[in-house]
Amino acid sequence: MDQLTDYIPPRDASPRPSIRTLTFQDLVTSLFRGWHDARRAWPFGLIFAGFYVAGGLILTFLSPGFLWQIILLALAFPLFAPFAAVGLYEVSRRLERSLRLDGSEILGVLWRERNREIPWLGGLIVFYFLFYSFLAHMIFALFMGLSAMTNVSTSWEAFLTPNGLTMIAVQVLVGAVLGLLLYALTVISLPLVLDKEIDFVSAMILSVGVVRQNPAVMFTWAFILGAVMLLAMIPAFLGLLVALPVLGHASWHLYRRALSHPVA
Question: In degrees rounded to 5, what are phi and psi of residue 235?
Answer without folding.
Answer: -80, 70
